[in-house]
Structures are given as C-alpha cells and as structure tokens.
Amino acid sequence: MKFKPILQKTYFRTFLLLTTVLICSIIPFVYLLSAEFAKYTMLEVRSNSQNEVNNLASKTEMILGNLKAYGLSMYADQNIQNWFFNTSKDPLIDHAALVAQSNFMSTESLIQRSYLINLKNNLVVDSKVGIIRHDAFADQGMLERVKSFQRQYLRFINHSLDGSDCLALVLPATPEKPSDFYLVLLVDKPLLSKLLFGQTASSEQDIRILDEQGQLLLGTPNPALTEQLYQAGREQQGSGFQLQLPHQRWFVNTAKLTTENWSVYYSNEYHTLTRHITSFQQKLIAYTLVLLGILSGLFFWSSRHSLRPITFMLEKMKMKVAIADSTADAKPDIQWINDGIDMLLNNVEQLHVSMRNQSELVRTEFLAQWVLHGTPGTKSYEYIQNRTKLTSCKVLFLAVLRIEAYTSFCERYDFPSRKLIKYAIRNISEEVIGTGAYAAEGLDMGGDHLILIIGAHELDELGLQHLLEETHTQVARILSIDTTIAVSNAYDFGANIRNVYDHIYELTMLRFLNGEKQIFLESDYEEFMAGYPSSSEALETTEIIKSIRRGRPETAVVLLRQQMKHVHELPYRDWKLNLTYFTYDLLKGFNKSSVLHEISSIHQLLERYSTLSEFQAWLESIVTMLASETETPKSSNRKEEMVLEIKEYVDNHLQDSQLSIEQVADNFSFSVSYIRQLFKEIMVMSLSEYILQERIERVKEKLVSSQLSVLEIADQCGFLSKGHFFSAFKKFTNLTPKQYREIHGDASG
C-alpha cells in the first residue's frame, strides 16, 4: 500500500494533526514541569543539607563545650589541686590524686587518657600508668609542648600517641603565662566521630571538620580531598558550593564552629542528590509517552470512526459533481469535498440571488409605481394583495423615516455602505412593526429617507405610534443612526398615496422647527399650520430660495433684507411668530446641508438672539453659506459617489412623470447648473438624456417580459404624452414599440 493515498484520507490527516498538536502541547509542559520539580527539589535538598550541617556544628560545639567544662571541673578537684601543690611528697596525697583522676575518667567515655603534669617536681600522673617521672613518661611530645608554653587555653589540638590520632585539650594553671602545672585530656577521635557522624554519615557522604589552617580534625583521612575542600571553602566564602574532582562531583555545605574557629564540611556526591530527581523525570517521561500512545490510539480510532461518513459523502459527490481539474484525484478527501460543496453552494447561491433579486426588483417596482403614481394599477393591486405583507389589510398608513444630518452620513459612509445601512433600517423597521398587529413594506426612494407602507386589520393609531418609537430606538441602538419619523392618518387602498407621501415627508421637517424627537402626526402639521400668518402678512421665501438654489448669495441677501423690513415694524410677538414660519419655510428645503446640522430648533434660535438685528445677521450668514455650498466643488471620489446617488434616485423615480432635473437638484440641495455640470463631467451625457435613456430601457424590458399594452407601459415608465413616448422610442431603437415587441418577444420565446 502506498503511503501517499493514506495521507490523503481525511481521518488519517485529522489523526496526524491532533497527535501533532497533542505532542506539541504536552512535551513542553512535561519538560517545564520536570525542570520546575528538579529546581524545587534541589532547593529543598540543599536546604535540608544545610540544616543538617548546622545541627552537626551545634552538636559538636556542645560536646566540645561539655569536655571543656569537664576538664575545668577535674582541674578544680581539691585532691588534684593538693597533688599539684604538694611539696612534702606525701603518699596519701598521691593516692588521693590517682583516685580522683580515675573517678573522672570512669564517668566520661570520650576521654581515653589524661595527664597531670607537674613541671616543678618533674612528675606526671598518667591515667594509664600512674605517677612517674618525666624521663619515664611515654608521651614526651606532649611534655615538650607544655614546656614550650603555647597559648592554647581551652583549645583542642591534634595530637598523635603510639601511632593513633586524638584530640588534646591542655589546661594550664595560668592561661596567659608559663605555668608549672598542666592538665591534659586526650579525646578519643574515633569515638567522637562515631558520636557526631554515626547517625548521619553514609557511604555517599563525607563529613569532616578542619581547623583554621586546613588540618583535618575529625573525619576520614584524605589529604587531597581535605586540601581541595579547604581551598574551595576559602574561595567561595559561602554556606554551599560545588567541588569538581576528576571522577566525582560533590556539593558541599559548610558551617562554622565559632568557639574553635573550625569548619564543618558536609559533602554529598552530586548524583546522590539528583538520583531521585532523575528517576522521577524518567518515570514522568515514560508515563507521558504511554499517555501519548493511548491518546494517539484513541484519536486514530475516533477519527476513523467519526469521519467515515466523509468517505461516503465523497463517493456520492464524485458521482454528482464534475470538477474540471486534472489534479482533483490527487487532492485530499476534505479538499475534494470542500471544492465540491463550494461549487454546489455557488450554484445554489447564484440561483437564490437571481430569484431574490428578481423578486426584490418586482416588489420594488410595483411599490414604487404605487407610491409615485398615487393609486395602484390593476397589476400592482393584484401583486400587493397576493405577494406582499399587506395581504388582506383593511387600512393603510404611510410613514417616512428621514436620516438626520444626511451630509455627515454621506461623508462617513461610501455609497455601497449607505445602501446597506438603509437596507438594514428597512429590515429593522419591518421586523419591529411586524411584532404588532401590523404588516410593513419598506421602500428606499433614494436620498435621505425611506418609506414604510403599513397595513392593519383594525385601527389602532396609538399602538402604531409606540411601534414607530421602538423602531426609532432600535435603529439608533443597532446602527447609531438618528432618524425622524412621521406617520399619516389611516387611508384605504383607493387614496392617492403620492400626495400622502409628499405631505408626510414635509411633516418630518417639523423636527427642524422645535428639535423634538417624536413621532410626528398629521394633526401636528394641522396644529402647526393653524398658527401660520395670513397670506398678506406672511413673508415671501420663494425668490430667496431660488437665488440660493442658483448659487447667488448676494441676490439672496438683498431679497432677505427686503423681507426683513416688514418684520421691523411689527410688535415683538408678531415678528417672532412671522420669523418662526419664515425661517422654517426658508431653511427646511436645505435640511441635508452641513451648514444647518448644528441647528436643533428654530425656537431655540429665536430665544438665543435678543434683538431682531442679531437674528437677521445670523440669517444672512446662513443664506450666504447655503448659496455658496450649492456650487462647492467636490473631491473626485465624492463626485463619483454623488453621481451614483443621482442615478439611484432617478432609477427609483422613473415611474414619476414629474421627475425633472430641478427635482433632483432640490433633493440633493445643489443648484440645477451644478447638478447638470457634475453629471455631464462623470457620465459624459446630460442628466436629461440619461433619464430618457433609462425610461426607454425599462420600456424595452417590459415590452418583452409583460403583456401590458404599450400605453400602460409608457404610463408606468413616466412618459407624460403618447406623442413624446413614440418619438423618443423611435429615436432610440428605429422601431415602433409594437415592432420591437414582435421582434424581441419572439426571440426571447
């Protein structure tokens, strides 16, 4: 069996992946765990070793201290003192001294021998021999030492007698000057070593005590090791260090005997310290390998058991899907399935998008035709009743959602993003309103607003207002978009919805008047209009607005000042009322302009300025900026986006027979000349030519795809007159509408 085909199997690749991930995860963890354990264990071992050597030093000092105290008490015995100072050579005194010495020797096993040396009388009391003269004394070395007077009071020294080593404690009668009387205690080194090291030392340890010159006092004789320990201890100057020998490595802990100025060296072979650690690490690695083996086996079984259906899926897909790729057979199973599913999903998605787009286009066209024509035609009515959410609804409401600060909104998002956001607003609105006893169909008419056609089976205007308020809240929360919403009264299907649409859009401008974030009703507009000045008293805004639209700030200011002269003659209450409505009428058509974004309420503006002259100066500055803005040049990218918006607006209003360049310019708050120039610059055709061309294209589409009469199609596509339609169609196609339908209708069939 070849190995490459096995690698292409999904279960085997999954097994390898999981095993690799497992190994890469566990091995570093085990290594770190082992290293931390070794580090911690070594610290504990070293700490315990140091505690042991400290205890050993304390124990040694205590024993040596007891021996010194014992020697002092022996020296102070009266019988021994009598013998030292006896000048009469009394046998009784000699006997008493011998008995006292024997008594002391019998109570301390560490003292193997003791001397009472009297230099004055040339006598020695040897605990093993008795009273003898100096010339017969066996330990002549000690005799010479005491005669030479070395200041070593209460200090232990190395001493050799008859080939064996011992510790000697010399106690003179006078510590600071030569004396005639000495007490010498010889301590049994092997017994002392056994007492000190017997319970601690082992074959893998070495314990020795050295004096300040590095001479071995207690421990196993090993001159080479003793010398190296002494030198290393002097160099390290610490409580612990390592000593490397040719075939051994030692870790040494030290402690000082302060009373003797000796050093205790407690040495352990390094491998004895690490032996258990190494054993644990080996066991940990072994257990880890066993665990990895078990888990790998489980992964292999699980992968093969769980992913076996993929093999069957692959076989079925190979029978259903043909991938034009010469390397398809060499691909892994999962890659083959992934490519096949992608192909199937693409096909399904294309079919779904085609159906969805077609359905959305039909829906948008019928709803837009209804809104722009005012009343639904026969086909539109049938579609609305059968294919929309408004099915079987008895009454209709029309709501407009206008996006506030639209210029800033356009600057923040590009054209595709704005389309998506408005689509999201529509979905949120339809979903929120659909939670009540209502059905809603949203429609993006281009520009700064959307339309909601709301159907209901019963009249509940208060409930609808609550749902619209919730819509405003959810749009602001989810999309961070501020909207103003206005809703109509209830109408039936026969009402002229175009007039209602224009009126309700106008109603959203009331927020510009008072800055309130409320759901505006038709009754609010009636209340607003009830206070409107009579035609004879009202200030004229038409010519001022035209001058602003044409980009003539000087003319607009002159006309504004002429109107303001009438206000100066009125009482305070009357001029405030007139200025409220005058400012509203003058500025509401420019609500998209960035100049007016900071104006939240006309009422607040009038309260801010204490005199009429101040308010007039502010109003003149606003008019000048608005007129200048209508001709403001845009960046290249912004120009292209504006043309896209213009095209979208035109496409959404082709059914509207009143569609004109002036209407487009008003919608975007620019002058007619600037709109013409901008569109011509980007599209290399005039806007009027584009409108006519798109209308003809829509006519051609409907002639082929529908059974409507030619005149019905012309009406749906926004042509005002039969003569204009036929001449325009003939100019673009060199055919009459009937001829075009006969030729292209047959071809499509």
Task: Please give the structural blueprint.
Layout: H1 3-8, H2 10-75, H3 78-84, H4 91-107, E1 111-118, E2 123-126, E3 130-133, H5 140-147, E4 156-161, E5 164-172, E6 181-188, H6 189-197, E7 205-210, E8 216-218, H7 223-236, E9 240-244, E10 249-257, E11 262-269, H8 270-306, H9 308-320, H10 333-373, H11 378-387, E12 395-403, H12 406-412, H13 415-434, E13 438-444, E14 449-456, H14 461-479, E15 483-487, H15 497-507, H16 510-514, E16 519-520, H17 522-530, H18 542-549, H19 553-568, H20 572-587, H21 602-608, H22 612-629, H23 636-652, H24 661-668, H25 672-683, H26 687-705, H27 710-716, H28 722-733, H29 737-748
Parallel strand pairs: 15-16
Antiparallel strand pairs: 1-2, 1-6, 2-3, 4-5, 5-6, 7-8, 7-11, 9-10, 10-11, 12-14, 12-15, 13-14
Helix pairs in contact: 2-8, 3-4, 9-10, 10-11, 13-14, 18-19, 19-22, 23-25, 24-25, 26-29
List keywords for this structure.
749 residues, alpha+beta, six-stranded antiparallel sheet, 29 helices, five-stranded antiparallel sheet, elongated, single chain, 16 strands
Task: Write a structural description.
The protein is α+β, with helices and mostly antiparallel strands. A six-stranded antiparallel beta sheet has the order 3-2-1-6-5-4, with helices on both faces. α3 (78-84) packs across α4 and α24 (661-668) crosses α25. The longest helix has 66 residues, at 10-75. The chain is elongated and about 170 Å long.
